[in-house]
Structure formats: structure tokens, C-alpha cells
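Holo model, norvaline. Inputs:
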Amino acid sequence: MKDFLSILDFATEEIWEIFELADRLKYDASKPLAGKTVAMIFQKPSLRTRVSFEAGVVQLGGHPVCLSQESIGLGKRESVADVARVLSRYNDLIVARVFEHDDLIEMARHASVPVINALSDLSHPCQVLADAYTMRQRGKLFEGAKVVFVGDGNNVANSWLELAARLPIHFVLASPKGYAPNAELLRIATSSGVGKVEIVHNPQAAVWDADVVYGDVWTSMGQEAESETRKRDFASYQINADLMRYAKPDAIFMHCLPARRGEEVTDEVIDSPQSVVFDQAENRLHVQKAIMAKLVEQHYAPAFSPTPKAKNRKKR
Ligand code: CP
Ligand code: NVA
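Output:
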């Protein structure tokens, strides 16, 4: 595997390796990106992804080169393929946040260096891998753990489907009719024989007995024109204290952030002791460092070997 465009790009065992590597890189002084540069393309706004990748690259000894859509005109000033070819001549990794997932596929096809998906209209794999790491940290990543995503069947929900095809979680999407997730990812997750997946329309029934209640904005970046319609369609899907009462008493609340406080989640929930949203944000850094170290190890070879050997790994 060269690229990380989807959680499906990793086998189950590799996901556990990423988590162990993320644990290790918090304290490890090794610099797997020493002398390397990472091109980072952002077609959309970003706080967490941009800063956690930029900080992570520096902490691993590399140098990030941040490129906005205004500066490079991906697909406008120059074709995606040519941008990928050129960036591959200067850089050792490409991290890209794009509107169209097909542009990521095109970039990976023409880049000779690994490409990492930093969010597209289809998926947000770095986010959900870091979320699974946060669940593990909180003792919530166990077989059958019930994760209820209340909201839009969009990019973040789609990456939960990818995760359910790799780890044995029970993933429930509670979304209004007309806001279904990607049909192909739903098919892959439901036929994987790994996790259990349900799509329901009643948020209270969905949240019943949940270990994790997860929120995302009702209107994602690029959908601003639909904002008023979405506010109406999602009005009964707000994650508030009443809804949280249907979950297990020790359930955690998760949100990828940014949050629209007062819309998809209330202050009393996001600021409650059950909320782990800032741990999730921090874990973007640790998990993405592990992803970069692993891709660099695989692609550029074995001067540095970050992946612990199976026999030496601690029992989970
Ligand atoms: N969660 C997340 O990806 O945040 P940003 O859009 O701020 O990067
Ligand atoms: N679904 C949101 C996620 C932001 C991290 C969006 O695409 O805007």
C-alpha cells in the first residue's frame, strides 16, 4: 500500500500497529521524517488537520509545505495529475484536503509518493482512526462497542463504515431520510462480517444503550447553501442531555469538531464530563504521526523501522 485514502487501505492488524506506534511516538525521539518534506494541500478551511499535521511533521523531523487552493489552483490553474507529478519531485509525502474524492484518487494515481486523505466529500479516515484510538484510550474499543453517530451520513459517518469493516464495533447511524451514507461503503461494511452496522431514523431508539454518542455538523463545508433546509431536517437530531439519557450511564460523547454549539449539540453535552472532544483533537496528532511514519517506512524503506514486531507487542 502506498497511500492512505481510506481506513480500508489498512488491514485490521495494521490498525492495531498504528495505535501502538502512536503510543510509542509520544515518547520516542526517533525522527522518521528527518530530511523529508511534506506537501499539504488545503482546498477547504482547517484548524485541527492543518495544525496537527504540521506539528506532527516537525516533531518527526520533517518540514511541512502548506499550500492553499488560492496559491496552487488544484484542477484549475493546473491539472490534478500535473500537481501530483510536480509535488512528487520535491516532497516525500502529500497530505490533501479536497472537495472531490476523485481528485484524491487522481492525485494518488499520478504521485510517486504516498498521498494521505485529510478529508474529502467522501471520507475523513484520519479523523475516525484517531477517534478509534480515543475509544481505546477510554476503554471503549471492545467487541460489540455501540457507537451511535447522530447526524448526516456524510464523510465522517462514511469513515465509521470503513472502520466497521475492519474492527468489530456495532455502528449505528441515526440520520433523517435523505441523508444516507455512501451506498458502496455501507455495502462493504455490512458484508464485511467484522462489525455490525445499522441505519435508523429514530435518534432515541438509536442511542439506547450506546457506549459512544457521536456528533458532526449538520451542514458540512461546501454545503452552506443547504444550511436552512438542513436545520429543519435535523431539528429532532440534536444531541442534548435528554438524548444522552438513552445511552449507557458511562457513555462518552464524541465530536470531530468544529461544532455548531446549540445546533447539533448543546453546551451541556459538549462541556460535560462525558465529552472527550479535546482528547479526540489531540489524538489527531499522535495517530497521524503514526500513519506518516508507517507510510514512510513502507515506501522509503527500512532505515527506520517504526512498527514493533508482532511477537514483541504487548497483549491488548
Ligand atoms: N476535525 C477536523 O478535521 O477539523 P478541521 O476541519 O479543523 O481540520
Ligand atoms: N463533516 C464535516 C467534518 C469537518 C471536520 C465537514 O466536512 O465539514
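The radius of gyration is 19 Å. The first strand starts at residue 37 and ends at 42.
Archived with the compound record.
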